[in-house]
Task: structure prediction
Amino acid sequence: MNLTLKIWRQKSPEVKGKMETYPVYDVSPDMSFLEMLDVLNEDLVERGEVPIAFDHDCREGICGACSLHINGEPHGPMQRTTTCQLHMRSFKDGDTIFVEPWRAKAFPVIKDLVVDRSAFDRIIQAGGYVSVNTSGNTLDANAIPIPKEDADKAFDAATCIGCGACVASCKNASAMLFVSAKVSQLTLLPQGEVEAGERVQNMVSQMDKEGFGNCSVTGACQVECPKGISLENIARMNREFLKTNLSPGK
Ligand code: SF4
Ligand code: FES
Result:
């Protein structure tokens, strides 16, 4: 396949970026999107040009690092697929493909296609954990029975990989799908229920501080999420938030 790539190039956060055009030839349909970028980068290096910076790590769809806006869609045209799992057979010979970084104030561009997603880390630090007393004997894994339905819902929420596609797809750059998945994953389980109120307050407060927008329930996040995280989690987070705000002593 021969393709034309229009790629966002930006030297640093302070410098204005622009789209640059790169023709690529003999692309195998079996290559992943990132492998295709690797080949382009090898060519650029051979020609003495600066390679395109893009984020990646596992290349297995589990780390959330590979965050690219491809033809206007986070992670490209395939549903439930991260950029690293997207293959060139999803495109046609002769296609022009636009590749951009996530666009959100809370995710500033560091270089080219790499954005700073440390806002997500700070939200997790604010409450995305369970405090456990680890002194004494280890608890038997089956000591606390958990209803199957709750375990399944918690597991589904826990599949969020923190990629940020939900933010990138939202007209408000809202992080509610991400935060609600992290809140749900812990709150649905008895181990996480103890700190549920404090957790939701702290995580939502940090989310607001980071400059993410609010949710207006358009559902684009759910459609673009590579892990199929459901809007149901946002409803759960809103309920938890309201519950703690209305609780006596608040
Ligand atoms: S909710 Fe989905 S889109 Fe958002 S960070 Fe998690 S996996 Fe990515
Ligand atoms: S590189 Fe890890 S999810 Fe794509």
